Amino acid sequence: MTNGWKLSVFGLMALFAYGCQVAKPTAVYTVKGTIREISADRRTVTLQHEEIPGYMSAMTMPFPVKSPGLLDGFVPGEEVRFRLVVFPRDATIDQIIAIRTSPKPVGNKPAASDAPDNQSELHLPQSGESAPNFDLVNQDGRAVRLSDYKGKIVALNFIYTRCPLPTYCPRLMEEFDAAQKLLKDVIGRDVVFLTITFDPRFDTPAVLKQYGSRYQADDTSWQLLSGEPEEIRKVASFFNVAYWTSPQGTIESHTLSAAVVDRMGKVARFYSGQRWSASDLARDVRALLREEPG
Fold first, then answer.
1. What is 119-291's CATH superfamily?
2. What's the rounded Cα separation, in Å, for the pair 294 and 291?
3. How far apart (Å, rounded) are the C-alpha atoms in residues 253 and 59?
4. Angstrom distance (rounded) from CA 70 to CA 89
5. CA dist 180 to 217, 220, 258, 282, 293, Å?
6. What element of type H or E holds 96?
7. pLDDT tens-digit profile of 154-203?
8. Phi/psi at 167 (nearest 5 deg)?
């Protein structure tokens, strides 16, 4: 075999290997909905959509699009049919077509109603501010208060277990899972993770325990918490987590937040949306460990 042929064969083998590594969709759905908002960079569209049987209830959610050009000519209020392609760690819209010629005047609302359930209580936490204590229960049904962890650093996030989009609640859980591995020498001893559901009617301790097992949540170092709706509303609102529920009590939409609370129960770091990673969290926690007496 000549060198030229060898190079060609190896090139084809490399191309084949690369192709095998490309993630394949786990599901593809064609869905009808109404555009509520288009991001300034045209990479995300917020849609109020119908139920996606077997995957997602009817709700309003932001979705990434495969290409900004897909949104050319569309405006909020327009009814569309779109194709949602779901991958193991992502979901994206790769096709969208108009099914109305005149849009409904809905404006740029972020969710299915004008304001989230906890609009009047939403709060943007500031560094050094005391985090609220709370009375919740963990995945084993044991009572948990934030004050139980005085003297330890606490990382918190907020989820609901029925959240179907890989880039939302599942991503927050994956980042915490990765962070606990990065902090394996201090997790449990100096650091604890708390994940709080804002869907307590469905997310019972038993549901949370099963959900947490997907992410290796050890109840000695990572607590998944539920409790009375008003108690959850209090702590979620403090950490600027907005959520919308339907008349039937299901979550229609929500925002994303996470935070780190220091040994004295004061806010040390606050992460809004998806602009943080496990490495960011681990770095910030280790910085606090160096600053504070052990």
1. Glutaredoxin (3.40.30.10)
2. 9
3. 6
4. 22
5. 9, 12, 15, 8, 21
6. strand 90-98
7. 999 999 999 988 889 999 999 999 999 999 999 999 999 999 999 999 99
8. -90, 0
Listing DSSP states for 74-86 in one string gives --TT-EEEEEEEE
DSSP readout, 30-75?
EEEEEEEEE-TTSSEEEEEE--BTTTB-SEEEEEEBS-GGGGTT--
Angle of CA points 249, 38, 67, to nearest 5° = 115
CA 169 to chain centre: 3
Question: 68: Cβ–Cβ under 8 A, 6 or more apart, which residues?
Answer: 41, 42, 43
CATH of 27-98, one of 2.40.50.320, 2.60.40.2550, 2.40.50.460, 2.60.120.40: 2.40.50.320
- Give pLDDT tens digits for 244-255: 888 888 888 899
Token duo for residue 176 = 């915490």
Give the Cα separation of 84 and 102 in Å (integer).
23
- Which two structure tokens, joined as six digits, stand for 77? 């209020």
H runs (alpha helix) in the chain: 3-21, 169-182, 205-213, 229-238, 278-291
In percent, the amount of the chain with pLDDT more than 70 equals 86
Q: How does pLDDT run across 37-85, given as a tens digit for each residue?
A: 999 999 999 998 998 998 888 888 889 999 999 999 899 989 999 999 9
Pinpoint the residues of the chain covered by CATH 3.40.30.10. Answer: 119-291
Closest to 24 in 3D by CA, of 113, 101, 72, 85: 85
